[in-house]
Design brief:
Helix content is 41%, strand content 20%. It is an alpha/beta fold and 212 residues long. The chain has a 4-stranded parallel β-sheet with strand order 2-1-3-4, with helices on both faces. A 4-stranded parallel β-sheet has the order 6-5-7-8, sandwiched between helices. Helix 4 crosses helix 8.
């Protein structure tokens, strides 16, 4: 099956990072088509840009290859996910939704560490709407945004560890690094927490779609 990876911002490097992260998690027979928005915003880091990303994701449907068997909306927060599902002819996987479902199935209290304070209400609202049965302990924000993170991950390492420690103190049992910018990057988190990897969750959702 072919998976179309639809990135609703204009950052090609972000698309490539998600493609690379999934390539090592999916069977070799899986074809991946990375699609990057040709217009819109370079990074989604505000409510206004989230709305732009949702609209962008919808018009990008025209670029999805005809032989794609599924679509991944490659933005953690899933802007436009419901609209895409109404209009797409194939299943659509959301990064945040897949991650939240993986945590919920395992019975975890999930914490999300992300880049940018604007994502705190956006992710809280999205996760509660998409997977209401999940216990979300909280969304914890690093400074800056996904572009900053991708450009200099070392500058964020201490912050990720500190926020993971706070999440564990708040009662979380699992943590995910919420954002396409985290794809392929490794950070140390509090040992009390189970790491829920978004790319693993997406791969599991895709495998379920591919199983007869």
């Amino acid at each position: 099956m072919k998976l179309a990876i639809l990135n609703p911002n204009t950052n090609v490097a972000m698309t490539d990072a998600v493609v690379a992260a999934l390539r090592v998690r999916l069977p070799r027979t899986t074809s991946l088509a990375g699609l990057t928005a040709s217009k819109g915003v370079p990074v989604i880091d505000s409510a206004e840009r989230f709305a732009v990303g949702a609209a962008t994701a919808l018009w990008m449907l025209d670029d999805v290859p005809a032989d794609a068997g599924a679509i991944l909306l490659a933005c953690f927060g899933d802007p436009g996910l419901i609209g895409l599902r109404h209009r797409a002819r194939v299943p659509v996987i959301g990064m945040a939704e897949a991650t939240a479902r993986a945590a919920q199935r395992a019975g975890h209290r999930l914490a999300i560490v992300t880049a940018g304070a604007a994502w705190v209400p956006l992710l809280s609202e999205a996760v509660h709407a998409l997977v209401p049965e999940l216990t979300l302990t909280g969304v914890y924000a690093l400074p800056g945004n996904g572009v900053d993170l991708r450009h200099s991950p070392a500058a964020f390492r201490a912050g990720v560890t500190a926020l993971s420690r706070q999440a564990a103190d708040d009662g979380a049992t699992a943590l995910t690094l919420g954002g396409a910018a985290f794809a392929g990057l490794d950070f140390e988190i509090d040992p009390r927490l189970v790491r829920i990897d978004t790319m693993d969750a997406v791969a599991a959702e895709f495998a379920a779609l591919s199983t007869p």
